[in-house]
Amino acid sequence: MSLWPLLLLAATVSAGFDASGCGTSKGCWFVPEECASAVASCVSAVSFARQGDGQVEVELFSSKPSAATNYLSLGFSDDQEMGGEAVTHCAFLEKPEVHVTYNFGKSNAPPKEANEQAAESEVVQLVEAKREADSLYCRFRQKLVPSVESPFFPKLNSSFVLLFARGKTSQPRALAPHSFDAKSPDFPAVSPRKLNLDEDFSALSSGPKMSDAPLQESSLSGQTRRNLVVAHGIMMLIAWLFCVAVAVFSARYLRQHWPHKTPLGLRIWFHIHRTLNVFATVVMLLSLLLVFVAKDWTWRGPWFTHSSEQNLYGGSIHSLFGAIAVILGVSQPFNSLLRCGPDHRARPIFNWSHRVVGLLGFLAALVAVFIAALKFPSLWADAGWALALVVLYGVLAVLLVAAAEYANAVERRRVHEVALELKAAQQRRGEQVSVVTRGRASDKHKKILGALWVVAVGLSLAIAVILVVLCAVS
């Protein structure tokens, strides 16, 4: 995948795409590079030529599309990643059409404002479009400097990284997701350097100057970035869906077990709770580091200067809930340092604050994982199964907690009834009445909670492992 910066030695024409002018009257980008002399063998080809009326004429060509493929799109990006760029596309449905859209993160949307919709036909016009059995081709003209200020209408007199994609859509004005399989011919192509679409090739005397703003190469390849994001996801799945889940369930429902076993002076449930939470905190921080490295240390969530569409797209919301989860999760070990004695009057305040912060953090993490399964299909070997497992996890978590709380309620009722019977017996004998506020848990109650704990640990481990595998082999 590369620019073809030299003059063609022989003219080649395929489905309307004439490569004979490449390097002399127009700029061209071929994928792969070696197909330049035989355009029909190219996976894709793009050309651009400045016109005298303040417009640029763009050609898009793609060979061997599937029967379902019905759009070709060209994104004008500041970097090599999808997200935050204007897109012009040709749709081949009932009739060929050309439209503009915008990538809000990984989601694409057409203009919604009335002035933007009205200006679209002035900014971009379809010149020619062909659909043949083995190719798609379209040619359109677009204003270099639109009169309407809008993210949908980029100023094409500057340099951009071009993002070429093809796929299937059900409506001409909006694009459906393209392939996320890097091995698929339908996976988007990215120009290896920025291109200046306002280049005047006829004025060049010493060979074509394809861009006056070469793309600064990143120290990280696209595959490395993806691997870092996948590692981030795997670590968060382990931290939240297993470690934190088991730690919380243990603290809530194992307190009555092994009351006389206190290794290192602490109850067993507390060892489980603290160890897993500390481990999860370390994993969360490492995972956060990885994703920031992958994203060039930039915040990809909602921000004051972003548009509402940018702030509400899936990736942005995922970042927001993920950040909330990490902040609350990391705060818990420090919050625990404020724990006072069991009989201190402020102990209920600590107990409830610790519980609420932990619960909110876990819910935020679960929402972030749900959005990742729903909006990032390329990060899963099977996004459908991933989404189903996340939903199943949430449902099972609610059912297990409900069952355990019901068991606790039954036990509290039993203890209360025993206390009332004891009080009545003492009154009948004329003895001093003692108030019983806490009773010894019955063996049956402990067995029920123990069984629920085993089920919770087993299900958490199983679902977390399956999700990790789906993410790792994507």
Q: How would you characterize the overall build of this protein?
A:
It comes from Steinernema glaseri. InterPro entries: Cyt_b561/ferric_Rdtase_TM (IPR006593), DOMON_domain (IPR005018). It is found in: Membrane. This protein is α+β, with helices and mostly antiparallel strands and 474 residues long. The chain has 2 domains: 27-202, Cellobiose dehydrogenase, cytochrome domain (Immunoglobulin-like); 222-418 and 442-473, Four Helix Bundle (Hemerythrin (Met), subunit A) (Up-down Bundle), CATH 1.20.120. Helix content is 43%, strand content 18%. The chain contains 8 helices and 15 strands. The chain has helices at residues 114-123, 222-253, 268-294, 308-312, 314-336, 347-375, 383-429, 443-472, and strands at residues 2-3, 13-14, 17-18, 27-31, 44-50, 55-63, 71-77, 85-92, 96-104, 107-109, 124-132, 135-143, 159-167, 189-190, 195-196. Strands 7, 8, 9, 10, 13, 14 and 15 form a 7-stranded antiparallel β-sheet that branches. The longest helix has 47 residues, at 383-429. It is elongated and about 110 Å long. Residues 1-13 and 203-216 have low confidence and may be disordered.
